[in-house]
Amino acid sequence: MNVVIRTLNALTLIGESSEGLSLTEASERLGYPLATTHRLLKVLADEDFIRRDPATLEYHPGRRLLRLSSVTRRETLAATAEHNLRELSERFNETVMMTQLIDGRAVCVALVDSRRPLHLSVKIGQAVPLHAAASARVLYSDFDDSAIEDLLRDHTFERLMPGTPSNTDEVLVHVRNIRDYGYDVCDNEFDFDIWASAAPVRDASGAIVAAVTLTSSQERSQPQQRRFEIIQAVTRTADDITLAIGGTPAPPASGTAIA
């Protein structure tokens, strides 16, 4: 068999294994001699596509494989979500976007613009402030508090609007609401005269991989009942995307938080 095919088969086996594999297990599953399997895995480990745990001697996905798979997941997620984002945008005739946490930055990866005027300073590929946007805070809301403090340790808490959180403690108030109720709102914090609601998209492990956000003007998001209607629709859209990518939505929250 061609050595390239053997190498790709070995890479696929390690990449798809939910737990580590020993050399013997990999050899048996691949159907290759032990010596051949060892040579293949050594090359992949030397190139950082896989790694060998020094304690258990088991093989796991490595840095380069994880980087490739994360890029693929981002592209697949954006493509899967396009219909859902457009449907949400058309229902309210408002701008809808999807963000993801990439290298510690909350980046807009998909955007459906409204036909109505909206002074939104976000485009695809741009990052939103970690402290000042619901579309960012949702992304790290399942981190523990100490991890959030580490994430924001060197962050500049620029006071963009009167309602912008000015420190980590104020951000954590939002984060705890997200954990309790499954969404966040941004009320005149990032852009002038903008109200927004965001909800998380989760993968099969339950981890948050993206946020769905609808943005509106302050006037168009009133009265309060309309805000709650938007929040429910945003949450439902995020859950629909979660299901489409094989994830499991979080259990529905009881009660209602801020709007």
Task: Note down, in words, how this protein is organized.
43% of the residues lie in helices and 18% in strands. It has 259 residues and is of the alpha+beta class. A hairpin with a 5-residue loop joins strand 7 (194-202) and strand 8 (208-217). Helix 1 crosses helix 3 (34-46) and helix 4 (63-92) packs across helix 8. It is elongated and about 70 Å long. The model has no long low-confidence stretch (mean pLDDT 88).
List keywords for this structure.
8 helices, 6-stranded antiparallel sheet, 259 residues, alpha+beta, 18% strand, two-stranded antiparallel sheet
Short summary:
This protein has 8 helices and 8 strands, in the order H-H-H-E-E-H-E-E-E-H-H-H-E-E-E-H. It is an alpha+beta fold.
The overall average pLDDT, rounded, is 88
Give the helix/strand class. Answer: alpha+beta
Distance between the termini: 61 Å
Helix fraction bin: 40-55%
Uncertain spans: none
Beta-strand portion reads 15-25%
**Principal-axis shape:** elongated
Overall strand count:
8
Write the layout of secondary structure elements.
Elements: H1 3-16, H2 23-30, H3 34-46, E1 50-52, E2 59-61, H4 63-92, E3 95-102, E4 105-112, E5 127-128, H5 134-137, H6 145-152, H7 168-181, E6 184-187, E7 194-202, E8 208-217, H8 224-244
Antiparallel strand pairs: 1-2, 3-4, 3-8, 4-5, 6-7, 7-8
Helix pairs in contact: 1-3, 2-3, 4-8
